[in-house]
Recover the amino acids of this structure.
């Protein structure tokens, strides 16, 4: 949801390029606090390590849930309903006596699946669009095409992920599938902008001019020179987009427009806990905690990676 | 500058037209037609045909699209196929509610973030600055609905200071209005304040490295005075941009908070319309939301060069 050019270089750049639609810093824009500044190397590493640990924790929860969970997620136990933490139920049980830890583990699957599919859609469509927009703009015949592509991108930005997902839920049945696709489509402009600004930087470099002089075709230049050089920025954007997907899925499931019963999802756990807030607040806090940990993990990972990959950061560090 | 504004206005109009076509097309591809949905599966074909004729659904799509758009331009969003009620008053009433909520939230976020972010930048090397940065990172990860749940548990269910849900228009009682406004607005504002704090901090850090700040310091100004006299206006540009984007995002993003606190905002109306399969209402509400997002973006685009003469001249 944000791009590279700084807002002060207004010319043809849109001032909004600096931010993603959801208000999170665009990859590469956010001179993320401290990272890369004098003595900032250590903190950047810390971001990446803490982020990677949190992400790994969520991935582990999901993977282990395929082999083992403390209970069956649909095992109803009326006697053991609404219990607090205990040896038998480390995180307690819900209104049907279902084990909360089991549900948290299953919920991690949906969270990761939605993130993977949504980010996959956005990355595979948005990145080529951004590269093409930058490459064709190099040629006299392609200036208008590049402009049209980026204007279309801007129009898509007027549809935030949540709005697009609600529209999809109206048009199709509410469910995990439409939610993933909607969140993915809404994330396309972010990737397109990052890829475009990265490509424009690469195209201005000496080795690309050398490749052009030796008559390399535009597609060959894009694949051989551009792709490897913007991969880092795209990965950063993917990490940030993943965090947004996690939030969007949780929000949609909370509204009843995402993952449907009986599939366990963190957003729906939070929603179902609403009626017991005064008596059993922990029912809301556990899914809330894991949503927050997942978002924090991917955001921190993105920050740490940005410090590694963003050329601007390199300059700063030097 | 005039060319720049005209250019942006043209893009705005174009985006609005494309968005209306997309929204209309999406709603028209629905399996089963709107009249069938409204009457239910047991309706006789004659009854469906009669309702189709009544609402003009038997017209070709282009005619229906033009009718819909002309109606909206005149402020008429049509009549719901499901409830039979006019859609416009519902939209107007709920937009006002969401507007109050969202503008108050962004205002609160700015009031929190600008001093915190500036302070974090000026103190970046000691523990206060680091603590603010770490807290803002955590704040970004807390979804607003989780913040809402925690606030309700603490300030409503435990302390009993504020009602846990409901809405009251300001004219019905200003005290009741404010009491019901506090928790939803704070839930929305906290996350936005965390995001904004990071931008303010990073903008102030960037500005503090500028030559004109060094010059001001060389003239004998303290760091703080140099920042206030010369830096803040420059640091304001990214902050305005981000706050604008946040405002636009919250218009839809507030829907979850509206649901938790049972607030009759535009998001709640949209979710209700989706649940009732009230397609014309969905179409109208989505268009209003897209229109508002585009208007906010347009205002930000025009405001930035007003604040920054360098951009003004470049444009």
């Amino acid at each position: 949801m944000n791009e590279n050019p700084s807002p002060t270089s207004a010319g043809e750049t849109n001032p909004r390029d600096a931010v993603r639609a959801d208000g999170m810093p665009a990859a590469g824009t956010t001179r993320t606090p401290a990272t890369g500044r004098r003595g900032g190397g250590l903190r950047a590493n810390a971001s990446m390590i803490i982020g990677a640990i949190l992400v790994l924790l969520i991935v582990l929860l999901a993977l282990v849930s395929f082999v083992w969970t403390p209970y069956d997620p649909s095992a109803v136990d009326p006697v053991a309903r609404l219990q607090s933490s205990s040896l038998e139920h480390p995180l307690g049980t819900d209104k049907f006596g279902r084990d909360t830890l089991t549900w948290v583990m299953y919920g991690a699957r949906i969270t990761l699946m939605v993130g993977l599919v949504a980010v996959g859609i956005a990355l595979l469509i948005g990145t080529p669009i951004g590269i093409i927009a930058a490459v064709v703009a190099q040629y006299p015949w392609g200036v208008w095409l590049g402009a049209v592509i980026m204007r279309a991108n801007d129009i898509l930005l007027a549809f935030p992920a949540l709005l697009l997902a609600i529209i999809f839920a109206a048009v199709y049945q509410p469910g995990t599938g439409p939610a993933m696709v909607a969140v993915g489509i809404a994330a396309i402009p972010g990737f397109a902008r990052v890829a475009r600004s990265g490509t424009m930087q690469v195209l201005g470099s000496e080795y690309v001019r050398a490749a052009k002089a030796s008559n390399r075709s535009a597609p060959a230049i894009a694949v051989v020179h551009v792709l490897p050089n913007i991969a880092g920025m795209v990965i950063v954007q993917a990490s940030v987009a993943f965090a947004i997907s996690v939030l969007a899925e949780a929000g949609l499931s909370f509204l009843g427009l995402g993952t449907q019963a009986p599939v366990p999802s963190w957003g729906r756990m939070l929603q179902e806990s609403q009626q017991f807030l005064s008596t059993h607040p922990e029912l809301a806090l556990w899914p809330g905690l894991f949503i927050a940990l997942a978002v924090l993990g991917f955001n921190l990972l993105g920050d740490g990676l940005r410090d590694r990959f963003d050329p601007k950061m390199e300059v700063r560090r030097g | 500058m005039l060319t720049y504004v005209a250019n942006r206005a043209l893009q705005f109009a174009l985006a609005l037209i494309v968005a209306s076509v997309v929204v209309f097309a999406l709603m028209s591809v629905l399996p089963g037609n709107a009249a069938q949905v409204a009457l239910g599966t047991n309706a006789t074909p004659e009854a469906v045909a009669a309702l189709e004729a009544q609402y003009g659904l038997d017209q070709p799509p282009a005619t229906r699209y033009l009718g819909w758009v002309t109606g909206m331009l005149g402020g008429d969003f049509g009549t719901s196929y499901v409830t039979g009620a006019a859609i416009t008053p519902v939209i107007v009433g709920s937009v006002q509610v969401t507007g109050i909520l969202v503008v108050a939230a962004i205002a609160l976020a700015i009031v929190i973030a600008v001093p915190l972010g500036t302070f974090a930048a000026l103190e970046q090397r000691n523990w206060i600055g680091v603590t603010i940065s770490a807290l803002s990172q955590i704040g970004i990860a807390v979804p607003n609905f989780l913040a809402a749940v925690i606030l309700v548990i603490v300030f409503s269910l435990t302390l009993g200071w504020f009602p846990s849900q409901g809405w009251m228009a300001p004219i019905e009682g200003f005290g009741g209005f404010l009491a019901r406004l506090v928790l939803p607005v704070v839930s929305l504002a906290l996350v936005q304040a965390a995001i904004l704090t990071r931008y303010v901090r990073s903008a102030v850090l960037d500005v503090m490295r500028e030559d004109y700040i060094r010059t001001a310091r060389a003239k004998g100004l303290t760091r703080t005075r140099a920042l206030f006299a010369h830096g803040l206006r420059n640091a304001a540009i990214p902050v305005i941009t981000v706050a604008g984007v946040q405002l636009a995002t919250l218009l839809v993003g507030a829907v979850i908070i509206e649901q938790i606190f049972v607030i009759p905002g535009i998001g709640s109306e949209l979710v209700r319309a989706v649940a009732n399969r009230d397609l014309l209402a969905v179409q109208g509400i989505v268009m209003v939301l897209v229109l508002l997002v585009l208007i906010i973006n347009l205002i930000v685009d025009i405001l930035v060069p007003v604040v920054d003469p360098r951009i003004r001249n470049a444009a």
Q: What stands out?
A: The two ends of chain A are 28 Å apart (CA to CA).
